[in-house]
Amino acid sequence: MLAKVSSCAVVGIDALAVEVEVDVASGLPSFDIVGLPGASVREARDRVRSAIKNSGFDFPMGRVTVNLAPAHVPKAGTLFDLPIAMGILAASGQLPLPARDSPVMVGELSLDGSVRAVWGVLCIAAAMGGSPRLLVLPRGNRAEVEAVAGVRAVPVATLREAAELAKQGWPRAEITAGVGDPPAQSRDDPWKDVWGQETAKRALEISIAGGHHALLIGPPGAGKTLLARQAARLAPPLSRDEVVEVSRIYSVAGLLSEDEPFLYQRPFRSPHHTVTIPALLGGGAAPRPGEVSLAHRGVLFLDELGEFDRAVIDALREPLEEGVVTVSRVFGRCVFPARFTLIGALNPCPCGYLGDPERPCSCRPAEVHRYRRRLSGPILDRIDLFIRVQRPAAGEARLRGGQRSAPVRDRAAAIARARRLQRERFGREGRLNGEIPFDEIHVYCVLDREGERLLRRAAAGWNLSPRSVHRVMRVARTIADLEGDERIRAQHVAEALSYRQESQLA
After folding, report:
1. Helix, strand, or coil here: 83?
2. In the chain, how many domains are there?
3. Closest to 134 measured CA to CA, from 153, 107, 112, 111
4. What is the pLDDT of residues 242-288, one digit of tens each?
5. Which residues form the domain of 141?
6. Is residue 319 one of the residues assigned to a domain?
7. In-domain check, residue 42
8. 12 in a structural domain
9. Which pLDDT tens digit goes with each residue over 346-358?
10. How far is CA 337 from CA 16, 319, 323, 326, 397, in A?
């Protein structure tokens, strides 16, 4: 007898419909899975056989063949265990055959028949939002799919429970409500523990408001890491659309749980300097998202940037420019979103004390040159803000409490207002000023006469590339938005130019 059960495969962060075809025929006992199954899918044979027996059903004594169609797409993960088991029960006559529009089933089976949570369910739910079909999923993934409104979900805890519900015609569907308002967060001053550094604070507020990439340059102990971590807290919470967008990536990466089924706060990722290119950009036989995608709509902080391998740093060129990562394989390609704000921290030399007024530098000129060459010209060209950070003098340091320049409400309100202006300017695309396309620069970044004259002089005197000029214009656009000014004036351009004085590092 032949049975067909619907399921889904997750390719990148997209869901692809898969039909699980199960045929039970007479002959010597065997259990084969075809359709380009991965190692975890092939191992389903042992899990499914034990789960069926331990759930009180009979495993058919004959030739069991399972085909995962379309057969040209590689299948990975353990989410096919439940549909394979249900298909075997239906094909062996122990369950009614599924209807033509059978529920979409996903889930991993334990040997005792319980259904475990799997990764990628939120991507499947997002593809099914508003569909009349049912989604049968593990109970541990139920809270995760709540991020998507209008999904008819049927959570199950065991194979026996799923079989009983199938006999009853799936009477227990729950309609998901979608993402609600984010929980209230305490808005304490993120700068309260940072003494001084007013220029760096202002530059990082511009970075967060407009999504501009920033590089903090200074000696050890100047507070670069603290500045970056605290600046990320100034960003407003994710919008409802962004919650689903970001949570889909974390679902594929297997980083969601019942306690945290989706993300409300913008991600902050800080990989170690020994990170590899696949770990940073994503990859693998079954491609999974890397750190740049896990930082989507948030901040990617690269501490000790000079210690990263140059090939790893150069691999950031395309994500910084395009906002996506494309992982190509023989069977096709996966596209992961990667619109993040990069904040890097860099010592001026290997020992860290070049130009320090209190400690002399012990590095040779060749060592300094070699150290700085790890940042190539194309990477520096993609940085918007270069921020020089100095250590506070010993007499000015404080053991507790920082120097407050303005109430946090004023800064957070200005950043939220600037983000709102950008949302109104670009619509539902979710773009920020730092992502304005080249062909739209002169539409959204209109300079007054004095500002244009100032920018032309600076471009000629500093030998700025066209990309650098456009980045100055984007930063000036954000500065004007923070001040509530629709037109970009000379003072906005001047401040934007002041953050490019350290750009000639290579």
Report:
1. helix
2. 1
3. 153
4. 999 999 999 999 999 888 898 989 999 999 999 999 999 998 878 89
5. 2-177
6. no
7. yes
8. yes
9. 999 999 999 888 8
10. 18, 9, 6, 9, 41
